[in-house]
Design brief:
single chain, alpha+beta, GMP Synthetase, Chain A, domain 3, 3-stranded mixed beta sheet, 4 helices, 3 strands
């Protein structure tokens, strides 16, 4: 009779190990990036955000206001840093505002 593996793991760690390296990881990262954008930038900027597309490692933000687009462009480096801190990993290296 084979021995049982008595090493205990949390469900979270088992799921994390399953996700890493799988096709699920990219999809979950896309959802996380979009969610964090709205969380970090807040309702005033989210109101003008038409759509978000993350194509690793570039984040494409489609805005309905050209003035806001120009303002955000000037603070791009700070926004990237804030997003990556909120995500807990370096997923965004550049942002393109359209």
């Amino acid at each position: 009779m084979p021995k049982r593996n008595t090493e205990s793991q949390t469900i979270a760690s088992v799921l994390q190990n399953m996700i890493i390296g799988s096709k699920l990881e990219n999809g979950l990262n896309k959802v996380a990036v979009e969610s964090v954008w709205h969380e970090v930038m807040g309702p005033p900027i989210s109101k003008y955000t038409k759509s978000i597309k993350w194509s690793a490692p570039v984040l494409y933000i489609y805005l309905s206001s050209s003035v806001l687009r120009e303002e955000l462009h000037y603070g791009k480096e700070k926004i990237i840093k804030m997003l990556n801190e909120a995500l807990g990993q370096e997923l965004v290296s550049d942002i393109v505002f359209k």
